[in-house]
Amino acid sequence: MSLAAEAAAGTALSITAPAKINLTLRVTGRRADGYHLLDSLVVFTELGDELSVRAPVADESALSLAVDGPFAAPLNGESDNLVLRAARRLAEDAQIVPQAAFTLTKRLPVASGIGGGSADAAAALHLLNDLWGLKRSLDALQALALPLGADIPVCLLKRPAMMRGIGETLLPLDRLPDFALLLVNPGAALSTAEIFAARQGAFTTPTPPPSAFAALDTLIDWLSQEANDLEEPARRLCPAVGEVLEALGRTAGCRLARMSGSGATCFAIYATLAEAEAAAEAVARAYPAWWVAASRCRGASP
User: What are phi and psi of 250, to 5 degrees?
Assistant: First the structure.
């Protein structure tokens, strides 16, 4: 039985929407329409939200979203969630009535710089492409998704890549070494618009990366030449970001600590998952109010 037939028969299709991490984020310019141009090395963790979909039954709305999980509260009752917006956009493009019953298990903090909403929207497009039997190519889904959010095309890709422009140019990496990440969010809210507005100085000319990183030392050396251009304004607007980075830098085995996206989630890189998990335990003991999670980085294979 095909995936579409399974869903139509009432079987839910499920997919993980992995956290997106900006190992680097350079602001390289600004277009006339106000959109900033970026250059960012993006990777994904094995940790993420979980999204499932099935065909609605007779007494349900044609298009619905139920949200559960530890970070469900901010999204409950939201009628314009990115998952629903993605569904409506795909249905409009396909000239069909959107019919889908979604359940989102929200494990990632909301509006935290790790692409949770964008990853959820990307997962919805992948699932609906199967549920509705549309057979859209990845390129077609990415073009459709870009107006919804700059991070959605790379979240559809779900593999390490350089993301450029406003998110429309993606250069997948041929190889990435194995490593683990520790993600920490202090629970402080940061507005992406405010962070960009607070950024000072000239635009950045980034260092071109190799198409592949054979070893972790090579990756760390290159990352050390780069930065997140939004980290400094985030530190000014939210001192907790600096506290998180200092805490991560003190952990055993930390190779590099940096903020992801527009924050406030920060990450540290470790050679092994065991090191990341040990660091997570140490940070969680010292800062019990922070969200702390260790995960492997997803590899370069599609």
Answer: -85, -10
Domains and CATH numbers, the chain: 3-172 (3.30.230.10), 180-296 (3.30.70.890)
pTM, two decimals, is: 0.93
Predicted confidence (pLDDT) at residue 3 exceeds the cutoff of 60: no
Burial category of 147 from C-beta neighbours within 10 Å (exposed 0-12, middle 13-18, buried 19 and up): exposed
Instruction: Please choose, from the candidates 16, 137, 29, the residue with its C-alpha nearest in 3D space to the C-alpha of residue 69.
Output: 16
* Weakest mean pLDDT among 10-14, 54-58, 81-85: 10-14
Q: Catalytic residue numbers?
A: 20, 151
Give yes or no for residue 189 having a pLDDT over 80: no
| Other Cβ atoms closer than 10 A to 299 | 16
Question: Which residues share a beta bridge with 294?
Answer: 182
Is the bond preceding 264 in cis, omega lying within 30 degrees of 0?
yes
